[in-house]
Amino acid sequence: MRRLFALLIALSLPLPASAQDTQPPSPPIRATIQSQIDAMAAGDFATAFTFAAPSIKGMFGTADRFEMMVRQGYPMVVAPRDVRMLELRTVAGNLWQRVLMVDGAGTTHLLDYMMVETPEGWQIGAVQLLPSQGVAA
Fold first, then answer.
1. Sheet holding 121-130, edge to edge
2. What's the pLDDT tens digit per position in 27-72?
3. Element holding 94 (H helix, E strand)
4. For the chain, how many structural domains are there in total?
5. Is residue 137 part of a domain?
6. DSSP state, 131?
7. Is residue 121 domain-resident?
8. Cβ distance 92 to 73 under 8 Å?
9. Which of 99, 96, 65, 95 is closest to 80 using CA atoms?
């Protein structure tokens, strides 16, 4: 479990601005993220787990363990009041979709989703919770 939290902390480190390249929106990437959010809002973590990349599936093994991690580390994604897809960026060869979420209590959160293209389509390879300084809905 400590390894998992260390990985999640490493994934939350800010990325250097000089390594970023902004791209036009990608409907398939946005649809993958929204579908996972919709499944979690419905309490269907088995379906939500299907949108995770193979590395995430291997790390957690089961939808139940995935649900526990999400509820503990990323509760704002379980049933957000509002979701806004922002820019898609390439950073160090990886695609990152920035997402603004407003949770049920009205708090605004900014997240980055690393997207991975697989034979099954786009999947989520990592999520970073970004500092909330200056974030407004």
1. 20-23, 82-91, 94-102, 108-118, 121-130
2. 999 999 999 999 999 999 999 999 999 999 999 999 999 999 999 9
3. strand 94-102
4. 1
5. no
6. P
7. yes
8. no
9. 99
Give pTM, 2 decimals. Answer: 0.81
**What CATH number is given to the structural domain containing 126?**
3.10.450.50
Q: Which residue has the tokens 């580390």?
A: 73
Residue 2 lies in a domain: no
Lowest mean pLDDT among 11-15, 62-66, 104-108: 11-15
Q: What is the pLDDT of residue 22?
A: 75
Domain that holds residue 65: 26-130
User: Tokens in use for 66?
Assistant: 């995935």
Q: Does 13 map to a domain? A: no
Name the residue among 90, 73, 78, 76 with its Cα closest to residue 137. 76
Contacts of 2 (CB under 8 A, 6+ apart): none
Residues paired with 125 in a beta bridge: none
